[in-house]
Amino acid sequence: MKALITAGGHGTRLRPITYSMNKHLIPIGNKPMIFHAIEKIAEAGITEIGINVNEGDHTIEESVGDGSAWGVKVTYLEQAGGALGLAHIIKNARDFLGEDSFVFYLGDNIILGSIKPFVEAFLSSGASGYLALSKVPDPQRFGVPELGKNGEILRVVEKPENPPSEFAVTGIYCYDASVHDAVDGIEYSERGELEISDVHTWLIENGHTVKYEIVEGWWKDTGKPGDLLEGNALVLDALEGANQATTVEEGVELKGEVELLEGCQVLGKSVIHGPVSIGRNAVIRDAWIGPHTTIGHSTEIEGARVERSIVMDEADIRTDKHIVDSIIGHNATISLPHSETESGYRMIIGENAQLEL
User: Fold this and answer.
1) Hey, which of 90, 209, 267, 301 would disulfide with 127, CB 3.0 to 4.6 Å?
2) 350 and 285 in one domain?
3) What is the spatial distance between Cα 310 and Cα 301, in angstroms, rounded to a whole number?
4) Residues 92, 67: one domain?
5) Torsion-angle region of residue 217: left (phi > 0), alpha (psi -120 to 50) or beta?
6) Using one digit for the tens of pLDDT, what is the confidence trace for 175-215?
7) Stated pTM of the model
């Protein structure tokens, strides 16, 4: 098998963060999001990966390289013409995929645990398509299956106003080569895209078998800021503590699973309440870093209380305020103001922004 990972799009729902970085490079548990996808695919024994990227965007390639860090070979596939739907990504990858079966993995989705059993289930199923379904509170945001009386998929509808079920098709799929006939057999939707939901419906209506399994607590789409923070929390919940810090002073208190990466310093009366990941060469001084927080590399935090948040690389936070449920961009600065306001702020701060609290 091969694998095809999506890493294009513009991440409009995650602006302003995505004005200055590809959303697939946003750190989750101190790794770019796409690294988690590559790790899952490599662990499943797949060694050939195609990554779909925006035309002219080399940031993913600069970060991932040739794939040798994971024991895989990566081919970059520029999608000419912009975002034209998930099925267009498969069409764009036709030469790379050849006649091989493949895993189609949305690179901005967080999937917990191993995907190897899912891949093996597809290979033994005899199906042309194999989907993972998850019950969600807002299925209208996703592709939604209509299920028959025996539980079989009758069709899949993309982002329906009136969803035919409570399930969403999650961000991982398996296909055999017949999917290419399906892609060629569908038309562009009213949105101007080749919809992956139409591919699934085409397969079913043309005599191919599409099977599925229902997953719980296994998948998270990260399309919105709140989803991104929840995905970060899910990854950190599986964190195993490690201490590679240069300095952890005597007055510091570490609770739960805390990952201290190489060269970081935790100083003064700091409290780190895991699960938390502190990045390489970060400096934490007299701060309270709470559960489900990722602190980026070379970031400095002094005096603040930060929890359930993602703080990216080289940020500088010097305040006595309580920061919660926040995404703080690369090189952002947060400092004390000249006048006081209430504590407990929510924020999404883009690269090179400055904010006084």
Assistant:
1) 209
2) yes
3) 13
4) yes
5) left
6) 999 999 999 999 998 888 899 989 999 999 999 999 998 88
7) 0.86
